[in-house]
């Protein structure tokens, strides 16, 4: 599994990830295949089944953000473009047993995308996906008032990932942090 954590601040987004890939009883540390990728002006963080993440990482061209309502843009432009990329690469995203979640940031907004391609936003700006995310979210929950400073928030997210790695067998360093300004 994975630990992805994100925070949507007043004019920035921060996304953090671990580097462990777990495949059955194999533990692979893979910093050469990061879980957070930059695609144009987007940050995409992937967890779960590898194939859909690979399709988006290497074959998806996200639409240019037009400045409209971010939620509407997700529903009208982003999700249809993800579906088109899946279809073009022959990936059946409706197949039973497929499991993945993504965090997507653009223009300082963060969204969680589920394996049914549903889109959600958190009311408190905190996001967590993957097996260690509950630990990381717990570590950050009491820090919300202080996360408005991106440098401070970056340090707290690194600490939260470290806590997740301590308690979740499927999470390990090195950690990746990406900051995006609105």
Largest sheet: 5 strands, antiparallel
The CATH homologous superfamily name equals: Aminohydrolase, N-terminal nucleophile (Ntn) domain
User: Secondary-structure element sequence?
Assistant: EEEEEEHHEEEEHHE
Which percent bin holds the helix content? Answer: 25-40%
Furnish the topology, listing elements before pairings.
Layout: E1 3-8, E2 12-17, E3 20-23, E4 26-29, E5 36-39, E6 42-48, H1 50-59, H2 70-88, E7 100-106, E8 109-113, E9 119-120, E10 126-130, H3 133-141, H4 150-167, E11 176-181
Antiparallel strand pairs: 1-2, 1-10, 2-11, 3-4, 5-6, 6-7, 7-8, 8-9
Helix pairs in contact: 3-4
Summed up, what is this model?
The chain is 31% helix and 31% strand. With 182 residues, the chain is of the alpha+beta class. The model has no long low-confidence stretch (mean pLDDT 94).
Structure description:
The protein is an alpha+beta fold. Helix 3 packs across helix 4 (150-167). It is built from four helices and eleven strands, in the order ββββββααββββααβ. A five-stranded antiparallel sheet has the order 5-6-7-8-9, covered by helices on one side. It has one domain (3-49, 100-181): Glutamine Phosphoribosylpyrophosphate, subunit 1, domain 1 (4-Layer Sandwich), CATH 3.60.20. The longest helix has 19 residues, at 70-88.
